[in-house]
Amino acid sequence: MSAPERPAAPGGGLISGRKHALDGLRTIAVAGVFFFHTVTELVPGGSIGVDVFFTLSGFVITLLIMKEYLATGRLRLGIFYAKRLARLWPALLALCGVIVTVGLVFPASKWAGQESYVLPAVGYVMNLARIGLFSESIAGETLGPAWTLAVEEQFYLVWPLLLLVLLRFWKVRTVARITAGLAAAFLLERFVLVLLGAPLNRLYNGPDTRADELLIGCTLALVFTTVTHGSRSHESLRNAARWAGPLAGTALLAAVFLLKEPDTPGLWFSAFWTAGPTVLSLLSAVLIGSLVLQPAGFAGRVLSHPWLAGPGRDLSYAIYLWHLPVYLLLMPLVPSLWLRVALAAALTVLLAIASHRLVETPVRRWANARLEPAVVPSSPGRSADHTGGRGADRGHELVAAGRVPAGDQA
């Protein structure tokens, strides 16, 4: 799908280059999820890592879409989805293959009888299966965490196309406002579901009941796309980030240890499952924005440390996939809780390293070698021909109006 083009421009934009602090944030988030599943009593709010992941995912994916849109004047949806599959599917398929094989060889293990969960996992419908859309609701057991992947992929079936349609008719700032409005609409829908007595698994796993968290991340990305480095808006955001970022980070950290998501109907249940995910996502967005705006700040320096940023960049996805299957496998084998947690952490990291080196990286390199040439920015002449001359003119207007910063957007 094509869209008005913006010419390449020298220099770095506000969000150019990789933000290593966000990789470190991924490590912290996946650690929270790990401890939530292993020592829930000590880390009752560790599932907040999922809320952080949703917000961060919406932010990063929207930046990637905007990068290609602004650089080439289009987004090739087929290439976009092929790269998503190449990034995510191999590790998930490997996980399913290992679990099923071990379960067949050792039928007394916790990995036995998992075959029925493979299709919902690899088909990215685990969240719908957990709701009970296809038959009786399932937990998914070892493959249960695939519900979050399903929520994201279902969202990305719609969001790129919707974003490009919106960008055809409105300025980026207006699109950011519309996106924020969509997030508010899904918050309102969740409120209605709570009023109607929707069960917890519907509120927890629904693609619609989590859409506001992804859209908040998308909104943040669109807002940052409109901010020019060094502009008055940039300085105002930086000033706000100096105090808002630490407050948001502190609130999220406190919630990890103090917040227990309610599972029994009542006033707190209704209040939390109406506004809780939105509040957690907004706090996550503030923290993410602060890390982007202040990469040299204290939190940015800590999270950018290679010991945090490296695992977040290379291993966090595989750690998320493997941590629960490994822990469940060890439960009947290692009676001591803390020894079991330590072994689960070590084995999970080792399996994540193997997944990264033996599965994810080779497939990604193979896919990129074939897909990257398809998204190389078009020359000005070719773009003008393709858009009837409107693309280049539109791009110059965007830069001149300050609607997008010059430089790389990812």
UniProtKB/TrEMBL annotation:
Keyword Transmembrane helix attached: yes
Gene Ontology terms: cellular component: membrane
Alphabetized GO MF terms: acyltransferase activity, transferring groups other than amino-acyl groups
GO biological process: one example: lipopolysaccharide biosynthetic process
Origin superkingdom: Bacteria
Glycosyltransferase listed as a keyword: no
UniProt feature, compositional bias: Basic and acidic residues: 383-397
PANTHER family in the record: ACETYLTRANSFERASE, ACYL_TRANSF_3 DOMAIN-CONTAINING PROTEIN
Protein name: Peptidoglycan/LPS O-acetylase OafA/YrhL
Upper classification of the organism: Bacteria, Bacillati, Actinomycetota, Actinomycetes, Micrococcales
